Amino acid sequence: MAKYLHKVSVTVEGTKGLLKGGGGTARRAVAQQMIQGLNGKLEAYYYAFGDADVYAIADYPDTVSAAAASLAVNAAGGASVQTVVLLTPEEIDQAAKKTVAYRAPGS
Fold first, then answer.
1. Which residues contact 40 (CB under 8 A, 6 or more apart)?
2. Which end of the chain is less enclosed by CB atoms within 10 A, N or C?
3. CATH number of the domain where residue 9 is located
């Protein structure tokens, strides 16, 4: 399974729902249930200050499942999510060993 980082920004309506509907642990449970329903696993779920309100790391069996989670959250309207593919150091080692035919612009 591949790891993905979800950077979630909660809307005003989503914040109202968070305050009314059981708080942070309730929202984590919803996220966990959604991810498990896609045959994934929620590894970490943190609230934060800054550009994003929530950072969640999840394992998904494929990119389609990760995209489905992002689409569902964005379509619901209480939050917007950006999803980032995470790579292990070993995967970067493999990438660094690949031969790539590339020429920089203007060269």
1. 1, 58, 59, 60, 61, 65, 66, 69
2. C
3. 3.30.70.1060
Average pLDDT, the chain: 95
The parent domain of residue 6 ranges over: 2-96
57 found inside a domain: yes
Q: Strand 2-10's sheet: what is its strand order? A: 41-47, 54-60, 2-10, 79-86
Is 107 within the bounds of a domain? Answer: no
Distances (CA, A) of 30 to 24, 44, 69, 83, 87: 10, 13, 12, 17, 26
From CA 45, how far away is CA 32, in angstroms rounded? 9
Kindly report the pTM of this predicted structure. 0.88
Q: Considering the domain boundaries, does residue 102 fall inside one?
A: no
How many structural domains compose the chain? 1
The 10 Å Cβ neighbour count of residue 105 is: 4
**What tokens does 25 get?**
């642990």
